[in-house]
Amino acid sequence: MSSVPEARIGIAGAGTRLGGRYRLDDRVGAGPGWSAWKATDETLARPVTVLALAPGFSRTADAVTAARSAARLTDARLARVFDVDTSPDLAYVVTEWVGGETLDDLLAEGPLDPGRGAEIIAQGAQALAVAHAAGVTHLCLTPRSLRWTAAGGVKIVGLGIDAAVAGVTAADQAVADTQGLA
Fold it and tell me: CA 72 to CA 68: how far, in whole Å?
């Protein structure tokens, strides 16, 4: 978890409600101008991830555009985008909360069984192929972007959104995703 104070990123903190329905519960990451939260969609009683973007954050429009592009995709291996709000006080993106272990977590336990490793990479590659066919790329793919779910499948988080928030671009986006997956 980041040590960036909530006041610096324009967020009151845990317990804050956005859009009258998303309650911020636990901050799971932060950087200059943004914070990521495990939150609760109180209307549908489900966990979600909320990416909150501080007022004046220079890449808000890029993040919102990326979220809208990712929202068109329905592949079960890609974290779904549920909502976007571009309020001047605090813009945010709401995505599916993806439980399970990151590839980083799995690797921290020791070398992966070769069959399991191949399955994770194959599912990730198939998911990226679907995204690329729709003109959407990740550009910030790391072992933390791949989750092994309790159901035994891969889920990719941050599709396009992570890169937009970080200001990452690439001349050949498909190659950047391929290298990230490798």
Answer: 7
CA distances in angstroms from 25 to 1, 13, 29, 92, 110, listed in the order given: 13, 8, 12, 15, 31
One DSSP character per residue, 104-118 reads HHHHHTSPPPHHHHH
Instruction: Output b/e per residue, 101-132; b: 16+ Cβ within 10 A.
Output: ebbeebeeeeebeeeeeebbbebbeebbeebe
Q: Determine the straight-line distance between the first and last CA of the chain, rounded to whole angstroms.
A: 26
Q: Which residues of the chain have pLDDT under 70?
A: 1-12
Tokens 């928030």 locate to: 165
Matching residue, tokens 């959104």: 161
Say whether pTM exceeds 0.85. yes
Give φ, ψ of 131 to 5 degrees.
-60, -45
The reported pLDDT for the residue numbered 94 is 98
Distances (CA, A) of 105 to 13, 30, 78, 157, 172: 27, 19, 19, 15, 29
Distance of CA 168 to the CA centre of its chain: 14
Measured distance CA(180)–CA(160) in Å, rounded: 13
Enter the tokens of residue 94. Answer: 């709401």
